[in-house]
Amino acid sequence: MRRLVHGRRESLDLAAGRVPLGHAQAFFGVDDSSSATRRYLTSGLEWRASAPASPFDLGLGGMHVVSRGSAVGGQTLLQATSNFDLGGGAFVPDLSFMTAEVDGSGPAGAGLSGRASRYGLSEDYAGGGYKLDYFSASPGFDTWGSPLASSGQGVELQSYYDGRSGWRVHNTLRVHDRTTERGLVDRFTISGRYAQSGTGRPWALSAQFGSQRSADRRPISLRLASRTQYWRDWHVDTAMGWYQGDVTNPQNRPVEGGLWSLSFDRRLAIAGMAARLRPRFALGGTRDSETDYAGLAGIGLVFPGIADQFVINMDYASAGWVPVTHGGGDMRVSLNFAKNAGQILSPLRSLIDRF
After folding, report:
1. What are phi and psi of 190, to 5 degrees?
2. DSSP letter at 228?
3. Which of 14, 60, 309, 328 could bridge across to 21 with cysteines, CB 3.0–4.6 Å?
């Protein structure tokens, strides 16, 4: 559903029995796009039928969002996706289809409804691949806080290439028609590549020109991330970037101008339990006219031995990167807990196996 939700998620494998029924997951929590003045409570259910030997893949999903705060309302999103594998021959692309419909009510009982669809062709090769999509959405299609929000029609082309010398190029070009306020958006990334996982982060150069939320040609971002460095028992990652206009940034803050970030990672043991300590810092420009610079300092503590994963994060952001209603800094604390639902719901899983 392309949403980042802080809350609880449970997965269930329905393909273990004699009749494979795919995979399902349910989730509930607070949407990441929530702010101090508006909170989105999100709940949903997803199901996907994925048989290894079948050329057809089908997915269904439903999500309900309730808004609290400055705007009160509810919204329900239904989405269906399908993929067709037409074979592995040369110049024979795969087909994909997506349709979504949203219905709800906004402030003062105002009705919200709309529909969107996407049709695509894709093909993967030994050293690269591409995906060409045509998308269309009615003016009333607006999913709160989701990248699916777009009206009008357009074309999107994604392509990637893996170099033999250990680097990768990825580019996404999105063009909207002239009847909407959105314009041309181009994102590209040139990065290194590691043959083994867990060896740190490769170097990466990424940029974005334009914004899908604005027709202004001014939005631009440029980011250079260094390769992971090692100092004693610490893994050190650093990045520098420039962000101008309505573009996203890794800190998810109202950044305008330069941005420098530094993060650390170290393995340690706390009370006999394996853990990972992850301090992080960031400094950059802000859109606040009263402040030239803003900063962020945070720390994360990961316990991989508790359930599947147990994570505690605490971040403090100074004025300029927080809502103006706070009148100062902002402290954000989050706790993420992950556990395989197949281990929790063992009686239900045994029933599915017998079925």
Report:
1. -120, 120
2. P
3. 14
Residue 241 to residues 237, 260, 321, Cα–Cα distance (Å): 14, 7, 16
Does the pLDDT of residue 227 top 60, yes or no? yes
Which residue is it, tokens 């990961």?
Answer: 302
Reading the block at residue 293, the tokens are 């610079």
Rounded to whole angstroms, the Cα distance separating 43 from 45 reads 7
Question: Residue holding tokens 């009705």?
Answer: 111
Residue 256: name the closest of 240, 271, 244 by CA.
244
Residue in the structure block whose two tokens are 């110049």: 91
pTM metric for this prediction: 0.68
Residue with tokens 């974005």: 208
Structure-token pair, residue 174: 């999105």
DSSP string, 131-157: EEEEEEE-TT---TT-TT---EEEEEE
Give the H/E segment covering residue 80.
strand 73-84
- Cβ atoms of 79 and 64 closer than 8 Å: no
What are the backbone dihedrals phi and psi of residue 149, each rounded to the nearest 5 degrees, phi first?
-70, 110
Q: Tokens 């420039």 — which residue?
A: 242
Q: Give the separation between CA 162 and CA 167, rounded to whole angstroms.
A: 6
Residue 130: which of 186, 191, 173, 99 has the closest Cα?
Answer: 173
Give the pair of three-digit tokens for residue 11.
Answer: 């997965």
Q: Is 248 exposed, middle or buried (0-12, 13-18, 19+ CB in 10 A)?
A: middle
For residue 170, which phi and psi values (nearest 5 degrees)? -135, 135
Cα gap 295→253, rounded to integer Å: 10
| Confidence band for 152, pLDDT divided at 50, 70 and 90 | confident
Dihedral of the CA atoms 302, 269, 203, 250 (nearest 10)? 30
Question: pLDDT digits over 235-278, tens only?
Answer: 999 999 999 987 888 888 888 999 999 999 999 988 888 899 99
